[in-house]
Amino acid sequence: MMRRGMASLEKEQARQSENFTGGKFIPYVRLKDHLDLVRFRPVTEPEEGLARANGTPHVLINGEFHTVPDVSATGKRFFNTVTCQLIPAEGGELTGSCVHCDEGVNRSTQFVLWVYVYAYYHQIARGGLPQVKLGNLTCFKREVKRFEIWQDSFFMSEALKMKVLQHPTLLDRDLIVTRFGAKGSQQVRRELEAAGESPMPEGILAQAQTLPSLEDVAYGRVTSLDGSGPAAPTVELSAAHEELALPQELAASVLSGEFQPGEAPPPGSEADDLPW
User: Fold this and answer.
1) CB burial string 206-215: b at 16+ within 10 A, e below
2) CA quadruple 235, 196, 52, 192: dihedral positive or negative?
3) Residue 253, C-beta contacts closer than 8 angstroms, at least 6 positions apart
4) Dist. CA 35–CA 124, nearest whole Å
5) What are residue 88's DSSP bridge partners?
6) Nearest in space to 276 (alpha carbons), one of 137, 79, 24
7) Which residues contact 40 (CB under 8 A, 6 or more apart)?
8) Which of 120, 130, 143, 157 is most buried by its number of CB atoms within 10 A?
9) DSSP letter at 47?
10) Cβ(191)–Cβ(42) under 8 Å?
C-alpha cells in the first residue's frame, strides 16, 4: 500500500514508534541482570473456581514452549519463546505436527499469568533511576505500573505451587522474584518470595477485566494491546509496603558485606533477551 503526503508519513512513524517502544506490544516480566528484582500483584488465579469467586477472568495456563533464535528489524539477535503446536491426547501423549519439534528444538513446560508490575529494582545505577532502600539493601528503582505477562519455567512453578498451597488465593499479596546469575549466563536461577497479605490496590482488578485472554497471548492470536493498552491505575507504594521480603541468600550477602550495591554483576555474555 502507499500513502500520500507528509502528514500520513508522520502518523505512521508515530504508530511504529509507539509499537517499537512497547506502547502497544504486550510486555513481559524481564529480569536481565544479576540480583534484579521485580515486585508485582497477580491478577490471575490458579483455578477456575477461585477466579470466579474472586472476580478475575484470568486463570493460570501452562503448556509446552520452544525457545528459538530470532532477529529484529534492526538486526539485533534475540531469543523468542513460542508455543509448541503439538496437541495433548488422552494419556498425556503429544500428537500432531510442530515445525520446531521437527527441527529438533527442545521444548519446556512453562506457566503464564497476568500480573500488575509496580516496579523493578536494579543493583546497577542506570539512566538516572532514583536510589531507594529495601531493608538493608540499596538499589535503583524503575517504576513500571502496568500489566505484564509473567511467564516462567517448570522449576519456578514448584515455588509458585508452594505459595498456592500456603495461601487460599494468589490475589491477596504481592510476589517478588529475584534473579541470580549474570546477564548472558547459562547458570541463572530465579527465586520467588511472597510479601505479607494486603488489600488488592484499588482499580487493578477492574482494569484486569479488559486484558486479552492468556490463551490468546500464548498462541500469538493477540500480540498487542488495543490503543496503548488498558489505563492501568497508578498505585503508590508506601515506605512500609515497599519493604521487600528479600530472599535469604540476597539478604545474607548484603549483611555479610560480600555484595555491595552498585558493583557490576559477575561477567557473562551479552545476549540475554529471554522473557526472564
Assistant:
1) ebbeebbebe
2) positive
3) 259
4) 9
5) 94
6) 79
7) 29, 115, 116, 117, 118, 148, 150, 174, 175, 177
8) 120
9) S
10) no
What are the structural domain ranges in the chain?
25-62+115-256
Of the pLDDT bands very low, low, confident and very high (cuts 50, 70, 90), residue 5 is low
Q: In this structure, are residues 74 and 179 in contact, taking their beta carbons and an 8 Å threshold?
A: no
d(CA 67, CA 274): 8
Share of the chain above pLDDT 90, in %: 47
- 54-104 confidence digits (pLDDT tens): 999 999 999 999 988 888 778 888 788 889 998 887 777 888 889 999 999
Give how far the C-alpha of residue 269 lies from the chain's centroid of Cα atoms, to the nearest Å.
Answer: 22
The pLDDT value given to residue 88:
80
pLDDT score, position 8:
54
Report pTM: 0.74
Q: Cell for 137? A: 539493601
**3-state percent breakdown (helix, strand, coil) of the chain, nearest 5:** 20, 30, 45
DSSP codes, 183-249: TT-S--EEEEEEEEE-PPPTTHHHHHTTSPPHHHHHTTS--B-STT---PPP-PPPTTTT-----HH
Query: In sequence order, what are the beta bridge partners of 61?
Result: 112
Phi–psi pair at 231, nearest 5 degrees: -75, 85
